[in-house]
């Protein structure tokens, strides 16, 4: 039996004594693409941050490929996930430096050869090769989002967490991103989006306002 | 010692010079008069207290008493740094104390046993001023270093969390912030070293000259103390970041926000 990529059971998250959600159950098999939907403030981004260990949960459990997420295991589990924030925080410098930076971490050094995929990925995401030597501060919002996605894909993780990763993209760029993700059949994607086109290309939608059960089987 | 002592009345007359800044404050109607007078009163009382206390320490000249005085100074510096950084003292206390202790003790012992004449320099006359100068600079460096470190982490939390999400260890994710903090903390000492003697006579040198030493001896002391200060500040900042960080991050690596004191309205 294949272990679920993400298995969330009876999860309760409280931020500053306010419950964000409680009793959340969600199971996502490997390779499936699920989009979290629901009104603003129902905890979609919080759930992604929770999976990365940035937001503690008060109840329930999270398993990533069968391994329970704990304060100890989160460091290792982060190397199985990649994350793209809604407004990617990029430090000053060139795009090339931003893409190379994660490979300075000891846990990623063995993946450094993945940088060879950069030209191909730039093409697939409708980005110019000349972008590599540009200062990040000069990029548009859409370019930043795609560069952040490219950086996440270079890490070759099994799970991709996307928080409104298409919000600044024009239709052509959005289509390019969707096609690129759909082509990666083994990649599990859990995304947050309000975009109808994005939702239409997902294997499953999960409404966080109705959280008692959900699966993308 | 051929130093001219200052009589009580002459010292009191020295306060007359305050007429200049106070006159400027009144003329410009700056709301600093009360604060200035309080500061002058505090300075006088603190220095009187320290003067009497040091007189006792110098007269008794016991190493344990000098050491106890040093520990008290480090304890006071500890609280001043937490207040200066606007961080909770309880979240910094232990680590910061050790950082100050290491940053002060290592260069001080090096000065005493390598640069000066060993056991003879263990007299309170040497230890107290040397310790005070090193500690005073460590205090400034720690305020700048810790404030830069934790404030930049708070302001750039997304970039920090991105590093964690990309698989960085805590040390790897904190490294750029520690680097910036050290740069900010050491810059004033580097700037001071590069201009020292050109625009003003530094404190140590002035003290030796006033105490009757010749300028060449004064310069040798000044060089030794500047190098000791620089090594002490570098050591205390890196230790302060390292030792306080272990207490201010969750097991998952996120910054514990209770470290920051609520801003007063």
What does this structure look like?
The complex is a heterodimer of chains A (217) and B (265). Chain A has 217 residues and is of the alpha/beta class. Chain A has one domain: Rossmann fold, CATH 3.40.50.300. Helix content of chain A is 26%, strand content 24%. Chain A has seven helices and nine strands; from the N terminus they run E-E-E-H-E-E-H-E-H-H-H-E-H-E-H-E. Chain A has helices at 44-51, 74-77, 95-100, 118-124, 141-154, 171-183, 196-200, and strands at residues 6-15, 18-28, 33-37, 59-64, 67-68, 81-84, 159-163, 188-192, 204-207. The radius of gyration of chain A is 17 Å and the shape is globular. The relative contact order of chain A is 0.21. Mean pLDDT of chain A is 90; it is low at 212-217. The model of chain B has no long low-confidence stretch (mean pLDDT 90). Chain B has helices at 8-14, 19-27, 33-60, 63-85, 89-115, 124-155, 157-165, 170-195, 203-210, 215-245. Helices cover 75% and strands 0% of the residues of chain B. Chain B folds into two domains: 1-60, no CATH class; 61-259, no CATH class. By secondary structure, chain B is mainly alpha-helical. Chain B is globular, with a radius of gyration of 21 Å. Chain B has ten helices and no strands.
